[in-house]
Amino acid sequence: MTVPTHFPYGITILEITYIVASVLFVIGLKMLSHPLTARKGNILAAFGMGFAIIATILFHRKDGEPIGNIPLILAAIAIGTVIGWVIAKKVRMTAMPQLVSFFNGMGGAAAALISMMEFPHVSPELIARSGMANGHVLAILLGLMIGTVSWSGSMIAFGKLDGRIGDLRVKSMKYVNITILIVLLGFIVYIMTRDVSESRELMPFIYIMFGISVIYGVLFVMPIGGADMPVVISLLNSFTGVAAAMGGFLYNNQVMLTGGILVGSAGTILTILMCRAMNRSLLNVIVGVFGGGGSAAATEAGTIKEITLSDAAILLSYSKKVVIVPGYGLAVAQAQHICHELDKLLDEKGVEVRYAIHPVAGRMPGHMNVLLAEADVPYEQLVESDEINPDLPNTDVLIVIGANDVVNPAAEDDPSSPIFGMPIIKARDARNIIVMKRGMGKGYAAIENMLFYNEKTRMLFGDAKNTLQNLVSEIKNL
To answer: DSSP assignment of 334-361, as one string?
Structure first.
């Protein structure tokens, strides 16, 4: 790669630009680790990507010639920017997981298309020199397979999160998925060991690989239940990063390589951490067999007991320790701001208020953290479930707001439950439990929650936002 202007030692302006962009990626990723700096980190990383794109258009040369079709490139960037901006501005917080899945899928699709377009142009000289078994071809094939799986899997995840697609639970599904994965790897080995003069002759196999990858992406996400969907989103995100890194190898583009490696490695680490939090194995994620094979018992273990707003206000006001467990229902009601008003009001009365955050509460990794950060809840008040569980027996009142599966005792008591073995927030250990729900509907995993029938539990029915507003008013009037 050469450009007209060079620095000493043969370093080009483009290479310097890519180094700067890569550094901005790393700094941005580091800043994303804390809510107080996440916004700035996101902007820095976006600036680094924009900087790299502009430098590539201006300085990239191939065989001494600049990039062609610049008007079309700029038009495509403008169209994509406008579409992305409009979608991101209009999306509700409750639909953020769907947005993440959609955008992630588009990244996988882009990586797959790059591979399909580049394979016919594999250099005949390269083939003659080393046969098909070389890193260039391997990057193309891996980019095709991983990018396609990420795209098709993300689209299914989008549909499941949006309530348009249900689960497909078949006992033999894991064996089907493993077989398909072996077939895909077999195609890679077969293509790379061919000794042909023209790579175009192998294009039918590329199209077949693409089709099989689409099927695998669909089948490995379809069986996964809602309670495990955050882990899948994280895994698919790492797939897209790896596919992008393959493009970096393919084009010898350092910024694509760095960005892809960062996304892939961060997504993989997050997936492993979440698997531990869910008590699942990574292999089960890959072959698409989460959860148990049955469903939690639907037999009621008692009667539902309700609590009035005035009684709830008195109970909270005269408590010493209160823990709030936020869930997807809090996001649906857009009640995070009034919830923070409640915790500030209790704090003024000398009540210690903390939030118990389950790793998979909501529909994507960190969903509750983002939601509460939007309401300016101090980060110090957010406590992970494994840290807060030991203190729950000393908690006077635990309030469940729109959460379900993450506090469901079936994860510990019912081996037939799809969420059995998943670590939960041990809400039943608290001295008093208040559950805010609109009705007796089941959670995303579609199983009964026996916590609602616990002798210490009191139900406070109604829309979370309206209920919290009325509760705040009652506490102020005490």
So the answer is: T-HHHHHHHHHHHHHTT-EEEEEE-TT-
The number of CA neighbours under 13 Å toward the Cβ of 91 is 18
Task: Compute CA distances 247 → 68, 148, 254, 255, 447, whole Å.
Answer: 19, 13, 10, 10, 43
**367 DSSP assignment:** H
Q: CA–CA separation, 466 vs 338, rounded Å?
A: 9
Does the pLDDT value for residue 435 go beyond 80?
yes
Q: With a threshold of 0.85, does the pTM exceed it? A: no
Q: Which helix (H) or strand (E) element contains residue 434?
A: strand 433-437
Round the average pLDDT of the chain to a whole number and report it: 82
Amino acid at 67: I
3-state secondary structure of 458: strand
Whether residue 462 is found in the same domain as residue 365: yes
Q: Where are the beta strands (DSSP E) in 3-95?
A: 61-62, 65-66
Q: Return the C-alpha torsion angle 309, 311, 312, 313, nearest 10.
A: 80
- In total, how many domains does the chain have? 3
CB-based contact 111:147 (threshold 8 Å): yes
pLDDT at 295 over 60: no
Let me know whether 399 and 471 are in one domain: yes
pLDDT, tens only, 137-179: 888 999 999 999 999 999 998 888 777 776 676 677 778 888 9
List, by residue number, the catalytic residues.
405
Q: Tell me the one-letter amino acid at 4.
A: P
pLDDT tens, position by position, 342-378:
999 999 999 999 999 988 777 777 778 878 887 888 8
Q: Are residues 83 and 126 in the same domain?
A: no
Q: Which of 436, 424, 425 is nearest to 461 (CA)?
A: 436
Q: Which domain holds residue 377?
A: 309-477
Q: Can you read off the two tokens belonging to residue 49?
A: 């990507």
Identify the burial level of 357 via C-beta atoms within 10 angstroms of its C-beta, where 0-12 means exposed, 13-18 middle and 19 or more buried. Answer: buried
CA atoms in the 13 A half-sphere facing the CB of 362:
26
User: How far is the C-alpha of 265 from the C-alpha of 178, rounded, in Å?
Assistant: 23
Residue 125 and residue 243 in one domain? yes
Is the predicted pLDDT of residue 219 greater than 60, yes or no? yes
Nearest Cα to Cα of residue 141 among 205, 67, 61, 222: 205
Residue 217 inside a domain? The answer is yes
Q: Do residues 397 and 471 make contact, with C-beta atoms less than 8 angstroms apart? A: no
Token reading at 166:
């249900």
Cα gap 322→353, rounded to integer Å: 5
